[in-house]
Amino acid sequence: MPPAERPQVLIVGCGFGGLEAARALRHAPVDVTVVDRSNHHLFQPLLYQVATGGLSAPSIAAPVRSLFRRQRNATTLLGEVVGIDAIGQRVALADGRQLPFDHLIVAAGATHSYFGHDEWATHAPGLKSLDDAFEIRRRLLLAFERAELNGDTEALNFVVVGGGPTGVELAGTMAEIARHTLRGEIRRIDPARARVVLLEGGPRVLAAMPEGLSQSARQQLQALGVDVRTGARVTHIDPEGLQVDGASGTYRLASACTVWAAGVAASPLGRVLAEATGCALDRAGRVVVSPDLSLPGHPSISVIGDLAAAQSHAPGRKPQAVPGVSPGAKQMGRAAARNLLARQAGKPTQAFRYRDYGNLATLGRHSAVVDLATPVGPLRFSGWAAWVFWLFAHVVFLIGFRNRLVVLTDWAWAYWTHARHARVVTTLQPRD
């Protein structure tokens, strides 16, 4: 097909879903444009390791342009989409430019949710981007520096709000830094006396996992020195600490570094789409999509990943909500690309079916929980074996051979020495 007549596919966002959709179209007779407001693809499952000084940023990120350098039908653009014209089939960028499309795939992801208290973001940053990771690392390390300068560990408390995978991984790693990494480096205080508190509003951590693994995770965190508190709802956050409603009543908790891992909200592009197309949004701001991931009444627009309130339509089963995890985003990206090509060829589209491979989370050195879905039933285990499985599973899914090699080398060195060589901060001032 002559280039001038080839369908123009515009993909907004180069996270797991957007990247997978673009790659699925690499041999298709279409022109693909990927637009993202950052110039890199980020492997978010390991972002907490950048925040805690275990890995450097380039180890878990790759320039978007390098990912598509051999895909001849793909163009990458750096820009932020702020408007969508569904009728005129154009999107508007923040700088005023317009990008036309024949097919649009929106994979803009999610952001932090403070449940109506956005003012807490200043005192308790979340973890969604490299900038977030750098800010958390700065606050974490400077808290130890201040304690060393003052010779006082009484106020050296670290609080993580949220007992999901990100929360337990951050809390476990913070405890390791205090008890192992900084031992022998700090003279005037004992860093092991630092207290790490994990607050979870629900009855247990890792609520998406079976209760047995959730209890195992709690026990492993406590063995690492983490103070795990469930049924603890945060009602106020300020620069000095938090106010918490717990089982024993309301109490004040001082904090030298607070991290928010309690909730996510869909990208603001969900509201933009709703205004442009009249599509429905769920309570989290996600776009309610048709079974084939397109927008009702707008088959040329698909929404995938964390922005989509999608369901899995397996034969003979009731539709099930798709969890907001990277395998789901990848599968939606491939499905949206297939349906796009089917629609282009005048063929019927297929309802999306999510294949659940299970969940896993690491809690610290030799500590993890794994819940795998297998053809013969669930396979669940924890401890050292789960930790090794978690390590290799994440290395396999990293983007690029270089990143895999660097991460394996850094982890091997850290295993034998407890060292975390990415403990670098560039400013003493908080992020605006």
List the helices and strands and how they pair.
Blueprint: E1 8-12, H1 16-24, E2 31-36, E3 40-42, H2 47-51, E4 61-63, H3 64-67, E5 74-78, E6 81-85, E7 90-93, E8 98-100, E9 103-106, E10 110-112, H4 130-150, E11 157-161, H5 165-181, E12 195-200, H6 211-223, E13 226-230, E14 233-238, E15 241-246, E16 249-254, E17 257-260, E18 264-266, H7 269-277, E19 287-288, E20 294-295, E21 298-303, E22 308-309, E23 311-312, E24 320-321, H8 326-344, E25 358-364, E26 367-374, E27 377-382, H9 384-397, H10 401-417
Parallel strand pairs: 1-2, 1-9, 2-5, 9-21, 11-12, 11-17, 12-13, 19-22
Antiparallel strand pairs: 3-4, 6-7, 7-8, 10-18, 14-15, 15-16, 20-21, 23-24, 25-26, 26-27
What fraction of residues sit in β-strands? Answer: 25-35%
Helical residue percent band: 25-40%
Overall spatial form: globular
- What's the number of helices? 10
- Main structural class: alpha/beta
Outline the low-pLDDT stretches.
Answer: none
Radius of gyration: 22 Å
Report the major sheet. Answer: 6 strands, mixed
Distance between the termini: 50 Å
How are strands sequenced across the largest beta sheet? Answer: 5-2-1-9-21-20
Number of strands: 27
Mean pLDDT: 93
